[in-house]
Amino acid sequence: MNDAGVIRVLLADDEHLIRGALAALLSLEDDLLVVAEAASGPEALAMARAHRPDVAVLDLQMPGRDGVGVAAALRSELPDCRTMIVTSHGKPGHLKRALEAGARGFVPKTASAQQLAEIIRAVHGGSRYVDPDLAADAISAGDSPLTARETELLDLAADGASVAEIARRAALSPGTVRNYLSAAAAKLHAENRHAAVRRARERGWL
Amino acid sequence: MNDAGVIRVLLADDEHLIRGALAALLSLEDDLLVVAEAASGPEALAMARAHRPDVAVLDLQMPGRDGVGVAAALRSELPDCRTMIVTSHGKPGHLKRALEAGARGFVPKTASAQQLAEIIRAVHGGSRYVDPDLAADAISAGDSPLTARETELLDLAADGASVAEIARRAALSPGTVRNYLSAAAAKLHAENRHAAVRRARERGWL
DNA sequence: CCGTCGCGATGACATTTGTCATCGGGGCTG
DNA sequence: CAGCCCCGATGACAAATGTCATCGCGACGG
């Protein structure tokens, strides 16, 4: 704990340009100190262990381990470290997963740096912050109606593979695969599995 | 023309956080001056007309009109304004389209701010810059083997619509649609149209 | 202990999709 | 002008996919 009023921040984003720029901007705030930067999930974890930041600002999409995964790991490893997620593509399902992983902030990159700084302070203080638009979307979208297997098979179908290929990869009967995909498509009100994949992706259920 | 050695820069990116951070970072360079910012394609054009920047730094993905479209418009409207594209997802086809639109720089966001500043200077000086990795990918990927209609139909197929739906939207016979999609899939060495869509997307041909 | 639900499978059937051959028209080029 | 390629279409056939009914198994809750 740093009682001097300075908030020690870890910045993780695979885009060097954004990470550096963000670091520079946050450094302009007197009470924020960027103590570490990382370009991947694993690196973010290592940096967190080494520098013990007060707040970890994590990009959702990173190589190795995504922001949510890092948040989950940090919660158990460094419970004192607050985590928050920053992302370009704010999908309802992502928000839900992030909150379940213990993230206390969820901010789209369309926010301003001023807002980000404020939210870092709020999160450090123990509050939570979720982008209002995203929250509304998440509530209206609700939970995924898909079962675990349905989701898994839909994911395997995502790259356009044939039923036979999916069945092979999932070690299931082709008929079973068709049944599950059919059920998933019906639940998502999609006309076929490909449209179902799109629907699920849009909502972050995949 | 600004002979005082100061390069007037227009920054366009829909992500407020990144745009602001980038602006702050570039402002640290003595010879760079961010004279305008925009959050969408049309806004970028309007700002360019109003402020006549020396260099326009455009994000590839923006609402309204993407970076390539803005670059094309700027080339005819403000020939003295150099344009460059910055992007997260660098796909071969995008690079090609950007160069055809008159862009003189193509930089992935994994570059550092220092590099970006250098490239802005280079582009302003009349040089071109293309990320080496991306250039290699673009060369190895080559041009799209698809004809105009094939590309168009593949695009219509992208959201998982049925052949009948695609035929309706394209005002074509269903049989014709199947023929084109089949041809496109064959050219892309894909097993079906959905996999073909993925392949084309990966290469930026869509 | 019984109903419900998810998982996994099979069989049958209709529909959709992929593939191929073939046709005609138009435009470009050597 | 002949050859080539793209566009658009049709017909026929094979393969993949979607849909439905039905079965057995195990888990979980009232």
From TrEMBL, chains A, B:
This is DNA-binding response regulator. One of its GO terms (biological process) is phosphorelay signal transduction system. Keywords: DNA-binding, Phosphoprotein. Residues 139-204 form the HTH luxR-type domain. It comes from the Bacteria. It comes from Streptomyces himastatinicus ATCC 53653. The modification 4-aspartylphosphate is found at D59. GO terms for molecular function: DNA binding. Gene3D superfamilies: 3.40.50.2300. PANTHER family: TRANSCRIPTIONAL REGULATORY PROTEIN DESR, TWO-COMPONENT RESPONSE REGULATOR. Residues 8-124 form the Response regulatory domain.
